[in-house]
Design brief:
It is a single chain. It contains one helix and nine strands. It is mainly β and about 140 residues long. It has a single domain (about 20-140), classed as Mutm (Fpg) Protein, Chain: A, domain 2. Strands 1, 3, 4, 8 and 9 form a five-stranded mixed β-sheet that branches. A four-stranded antiparallel β-sheet has the order 2-5-6-7, with no helix packed on it. The protein is elongated.
């Protein structure tokens, strides 16, 4: 009987968790190279990037891009100029509440920029705003 009550309590707690809302990542790409455009050379994402990634002219910033994959949004992409390459990874991950421990659900943003070309580049991912329900805005830059 105790096992039945425990199972019923856990089931009721799991039903009370509900689902988190979608986590939209918005980002712009800043080309700090003053002599040439940067071009997208790779992308891997859980959803569609709108608008699609395209070249960014020298010394300029792209239009804002967005992707949204629900509770966990993640994307990886690279930009290249000559022998310089920057790899960027952005994510917004949801950890659901744990009714047994009494903890609330929460969102975790993560962003990195890494130089991968044969010539060193300066690659940065900067969190620019924190919204609600896992919505984050980033600026990534390449120099």
């Amino acid at each position: 009987m105790k096992n039945f009550k425990l199972a019923a309590a856990l089931s009721a707690a799991a039903l009370g968790m509900g689902s988190a809302q979608a986590a939209t990542i918005t980002f712009t790409i800043q080309n700090k190279i003053t002599t040439s455009a940067i071009t997208n050379s790779y992308q891997n994402t859980c959803g569609t990037i709108i608008p699609s990634l395209g070249p960014v002219p020298a010394n300029s910033v792209s239009t804002p891009h967005q992707t949204d994959c629900g509770n966990n949004t993640a994307l990886a992409f690279r930009y290249t100029s000559g022998t310089k390459t920057c790899s960027f990874n952005l994510s917004s991950l949801y950890t659901p509440p744990n009714p047994i421990l009494g903890t609330s659900g929460y969102w975790t943003p993560n962003g990195t920029g890494t130089s991968q070309g044969s010539t060193a580049a300066t690659c940065k991912a900067t969190l620019t705003s924190i919204g609600t329900n896992g919505n984050y805005s980033w600026t990534v830059s390449m120099q």
